[in-house]
Amino acid sequence: MKKTPIKKPKKPNFKRQEWFRYKKLGESYRKPKGKTSKRRRYEARKPAMAAIGYRTPRTIRGLHPSGYRDVLVCNMADLEQLDPENDAGRISSKIGKRKKEIMLERAKELGIKILNKGL
């Protein structure tokens, strides 16, 4: 069965107030706290503030864009516990090339999708 890819809703690129004015501030978002801040008061023509309403829906939160649940696999036992319908494996970077090839063959037999084949 083929999963449908996830389409997450678009959201604005939240940047810190006056990030363009002072280089030392950086772009990483901080909530405006000033008494007279136009952005804090949601005045027109000001960039959007981060809010709970922009959060990803619970049904797709934490899923890989392919629609599968991303599971880190460190050994063969972890690989065999995966559910091919809902889970996709990501082979740990600590696994060597020889064992990774063996794991990829076993995953193919079990019908499990591997997200980082890399070969």
Automatic annotation (TrEMBL):
Q: Which GO terms describe its cellular component?
A: cytosolic large ribosomal subunit
Question: One Pfam family this chain carries?
Answer: Ribosomal_L32e
Is Ribonucleoprotein tagged as a keyword? yes
Which keywords describe this protein according to UniProt?
A: Ribonucleoprotein, Ribosomal protein
Which chain positions lie within coiled-coil regions? none
Q: Can you cite a GO biological process for this protein?
A: translation
Quote the PANTHER family the UniProt record gives.
Answer: 60S RIBOSOMAL PROTEIN L32 AND DNA-DIRECTED RNA POLYMERASE II, SUBUNIT N, RIBOSOMAL PROTEIN L32
Query: What name does the UniProt record give this protein?
Result: Large ribosomal subunit protein eL32
